[in-house]
Design goal:
It is built from 14 helices and 20 strands. Strands 6-5-4-9-8-7 form a 6-stranded antiparallel beta sheet. Strands 11-13-14-16-15 form a 5-stranded mixed beta sheet. A hairpin with a 4-residue loop joins strand 2 (36-50) and strand 3 (55-64). It is α+β, with helices and mostly antiparallel strands.
Length: 606
């Protein structure tokens, strides 16, 4: 090993002269292989042999540890990639490439990462080049007649050729530069010009070429075996990091786009709701005036029934519009917060539901403790409680509704609203608090709008609270809110001794409808009286029409009432709320139905 004597000769001489042995682990020894010096590593010892007085010889024990050294070096690079694999975007990934390959200056003395852009060009996005003029910065993936027309033998043009070939063939391509095409700058651990190059494509998950990793090879190691496998692994790691970063970036863009769509949708609903609210208000005013006016006695009983339906649906539409408008005001941290007598306020709101519950055979239980120092945005508590109680009433066909309000700790207030209603299917539970989400298996007194629970959730989160919803033979909503105002942002603060409930309640519990209910009862009495005094001819005509049997499937109770009101005068009408009994009846007695009406919301394909 003549080429290594500069390293080993001094060690041999020191053993002979001193008579003391030496030991080294993983000592670098440059060994000639062909026309170049190659790095190799050895663990060895030199032990002197003496005749008692003088050193007359020497024993050398050695072990080639080159592969172990190479593997440790490469493992450190791989670990560095693993530490930096979670990049938020491509720009961050491009910076990380350079940081990761700093640990591999022996085996990757210089590199350039080229990404494929939309115009099918390879563009330099990350590199360790010292002189950018020597290397391509951007070039098309396909060579044309104008490409390097005047300069075919530069390092830049040769590297472009190699990378195009690698891109087109989707495989690694090696290139060894002649002496006149060596880099002008020195690179890597050896601080020497780079002669050997390899172009390696990296891929997306679907096999498309994302880009090219151009590596200068180790100046003192042949590109073969494990070394070549390592460089291919590096290219794969670069591709994985780029893919993950792009996926993360795309996910954020999609989330932002969805957020923007949701915002635009809410703004649209808010805008159109403003347009709806004025005519609805103008519609409700005269209806309520007619219902209270003595002049109403001049109307036919049937006219009051029409007013009943119109008034109830106008109220429902107004409630829907009002809830949509509330979304438009969310996120304003400077809104006024008030502290009112929550316990008394809760009792007042719950009492509004008592007549409706009693008339439907539903027991309403209220357990309230004295609650102090709970701060809420204007009308928030009212909106939360009314929406929760409305849901419980709508979806509890029989049984009971319980409302509990208490201090679960000195700094926390808990509200629980639970019922024995139809409950919520498990598959829908994670989504029922999303805006505009509707449970398809809706079998309550009234159809939902997908707004109420979303409104409740956003109001609770706005006040730093938590909402937990469970369903098991009914529905249970638990809300926890912190007392005090330190965790909230205020523009103005008021303490209110009492509050007046001004929100529009659901039409099914509005006290103003009592008069319509009385008129409706009077109408039934009048109809019975008229029916008994009908002539025989008229009776025969009605009887002939009664032979027609009509099946109706409609979940909305208001729609059921209106259909029955119109058709039952002349036809036999059978109403079904749920699909299964309707389909059973239809399949078993299909020939006996002369007509079938199905709410389009219940229509299923096939």
């Amino acid at each position: 090993w003549i080429e290594s004597w500069n390293t080993l000769g001094g060690l041999v001489n020191s053993v002979i002269e001193s008579g003391k042995g030496v030991y080294f682990e993983d000592l670098l020894v440059e060994v000639g292989r062909g026309d170049t010096l190659q790095e190799m590593y050895f663990t060895f010892s030199y032990s002197p042999i003496t005749d008692g007085n003088h050193v007359v010889g020497m024993v050398c024990h050695f072990l080639n540890t080159s592969e172990q050294v190479f593997v440790r070096r490469q493992m450190e690079t791989v670990l560095q990639f693993n530490r930096n694999e979670r990049c938020e975007n491509l720009n961050e990934a491009f910076v990380s490439f350079k940081e990761c390959l700093k640990t591999s200056l022996h085996d990757v003395p210089v590199f350039g990462v080229y990404s494929v852009d939309r115009s099918h060009s390879l563009k330099l996005v990350s590199n360790s080049f010292r002189d950018l003029s020597e290397f391509p910065s951007e070039f098309p993936t396909e060579e044309n007649s104008e490409t390097h027309k005047e300069d075919k033998r530069s390092l830049k043009s040769e590297l472009e050729r190699v990378m195009r070939e690698s891109y087109g063939g989707k495989q690694g391509v090696e290139f060894v530069a002649s002496n006149e095409l060596l880099t002008k700058s020195n690179y890597g651990h050896w601080n020497l010009p780079v002669k050997g190059w390899i172009s390696l494509p990296f891929f997306s998950q679907d096999g498309q070429v994302l880009g090219i990793l151009l590596c200068g090879t180790n100046q003192k190691r042949k590109l073969e075996g494990d070394y070549l496998t390592f460089l291919k692994l590096v290219a794969s790691l670069v591709g994985t990091m780029a893919t993950n970063a792009k996926d993360c970036e795309d996910s954020r863009k999609r989330a932002k786009a969805l957020e923007e769509m949701d915002k635009n949708r809410t703004q649209f609903y808010a805008s159109i709701s403003h347009e709806f609210k004025t005519p609805i208000t103008l519609l409700l005013g005269p209806l309520e005036e007619l219902s209270r006016s003595r002049l109403g006695r001049e109307f036919f009983i049937n006219d009051f029934d029409v007013l009943d339906v119109t008034h109830r649906n106008a109220l429902r539409l107004l409630k829907l519009v009002s809830n949509l408008l509330k979304f438009d005001g969310f996120g304003d941290e400077t809104s006024k917060k008030v502290r009112s007598d929550i316990s008394k306020h809760t009792e007042e709101i719950v009492s509004l539901f008592l007549p409706a519950c009693n008339s439907n055979g539903i027991k309403l239980h209220l357990e309230i403790e004295e609650v102090n120092d709970l701060w809420m945005m204007d009308e928030s508590w009212e909106n939360i409680l009314i929406n929760l109680l409305s849901n419980s009433f709508k979806y509890t066909l029989s049984g009971e509704i319980r409302v509990k309000l208490f201090h679960s700790s000195p700094s926390e207030v808990t509200l629980i609203v639970e019922d024995t209603g139809i409950g919520i299917p498990n598959k829908d539970l994670p989504f029922v608090t999303d805006r505009f989400y509707e449970v398809k298996e809706n079998r309550g007194h009234h159809a939902g709008t997908g707004i109420g629970l979303a409104l409740v959730k956003e109001l609770i989160e706005m006040h730093g609270g938590q909402l937990n919803l469970t369903s098991n033979g009914g529905t249970r909503v638990e809300i926890k809110l912190r007392t005090g105002k330190e965790h909230l942002v205020f523009e103005s603060v008021e303490q209110m001794a009492g509050t007046e409930i001004q929100s529009v309640l659901p039409s099914e519990i509005t006290p103003n409808l009592n008069q319509f209910h009385r008129i409706r009862t009077a109408r039934r009495d009048r109809r019975n009286s008229e029916s008994s005094s009908n002539s025989e001819g008229s009776h025969e005509q009605t009887t002939s029409r009664k032979r027609f049997r009509i099946g109706v499937l409609a979940e909305n109770s208001s729609l059921q009432d209106q259909i029955v009101e119109i058709l039952s005068r002349d036809y036999q009408v059978e109403v079904f709320v749920q699909k299964e009994p309707f389909l059973t009846e239809f399949n078993e007695e299909k020939e006996e139905f002369d007509a079938i009406l199905v709410d389009v919301k219940n229509r299923e394909e096939g």
